Amino acid sequence: MRILPLAAALSATLAITACATTTSSTGRTQYVGAVSQAQLDQMGAQAFNEQKAQMRQTSDAAQKRYVSCVVNAIVAQLPADQRRIAWESAVFVDDNPNAFALPGGKVGVYTGIFSVARNQDQLAAVIAHEVGHVVENHHDERITRQMGAQGALGVVGALVGSRYGEGATQATSQLGGAALQTAFLLPGSRVQESEADVVGQRLMAAAGFDPRQAVNLWQNMIAASGGSRPPQWLSTHPDPSARIGELQSRATALVPTWEQARAAGRRPACG
Predict the structure, then answer these.
(1) Are 89 and 75 a contacting pair, CB within 8 Å?
(2) Quick one: residue 165, left, alpha or beta (phi over 0 = left, psi -120 to 50 = alpha)?
(3) Each residue of 68-112: pLDDT tens digit?
(4) Domain extents in the chain
(5) For a 10 Å CB count at each end of the chain, is N or C smaller?
(6) How far apart are the first and last CA of the chain?
(7) Alpha carbon distance 85, 41 (integer Å)
(8) What is the pTM of this model?
(9) 106 near 134, Cβ under 8 Å?
(10) Looking at residue 264, what DSSP letter applies?
């Protein structure tokens, strides 16, 4: 995704509102409110539309139905205010095993994710994680933290994050300053990634997807990457080995939730 068009639009239209303190569903204190929810939704829609304009979408109707089915099952377990959003998904032709979700109910999946998410439960682990970022106000939180440090450019970096792959992240890093990113931005991003893991695994279990498959997904991710990852303290994502251990512990505790969902008739058949 190109950064400059969105940056120009934001610098011209962004209105800063009073910041506030809130608590995430995991009990973590968050500082939010630099922009309104309406602005977040508008920014998410604009970023999504730019992505659709610049990247080819799949012509495979089965892939689109598959992703939409998983998204709908996850969304059905969200709080009422999030369920009321007209959620939209798109499948982009790209070998990068990636996905993203944006405020305003936008979900994007790259076709490369199908090489590591090998069944509907593993795809649900990916999508639920990304939706977790949205429902836990992570975009709002990142924007609020970065507003003073990087201005409009920081807003773009916070919104785009790592959702669109290394190119966008590197561009934002170069323009915003690598030292600032390492010292200030990345630790918070690791916290958010861990929180999205927690929330996403809860969501997938409540939707009737096997939470144990989140472990298999990350094992596939490691295998696909050849096991090479940067040191944990320099990464925007938790260390894979540590992440898998946490996912395994939570999966055991969430099996009863999954079984209850299945007993209640929530048995997704997406593909």
Answers:
(1) no
(2) left
(3) 999 999 999 999 999 999 999 999 999 999 999 999 999 999 999
(4) 4-263
(5) C
(6) 29
(7) 10
(8) 0.79
(9) no
(10) T
Distance CA 207, CA 257 (A): 9
What whole-number distance in Å separates Cα of residue 2 and Cα of residue 89? 20
In this prediction, residue 93 carries a pLDDT of 98
Instruction: Give catalytic status of residue 136 as yes or no.
Output: no
pLDDT tens sequence across 31-48? 788 788 998 898 889 889
Instruction: State the catalytic residue, choosing from 130, 141, 193, 195.
Output: 130
CA distances from 4 to 154, 160, 172, 175 (A): 12, 12, 10, 11
- The total number of residues written for the chain in this structure: 271
Q: Which of 1, 29, 30, 210 is nearest to 123 (CA)?
A: 210
CA angle in degrees (0–180, nearest 5) for 257-258-264: 90
Kindly indicate the confidence band of residue 172, based on its pLDDT and cuts at 50, 70 and 90: very low
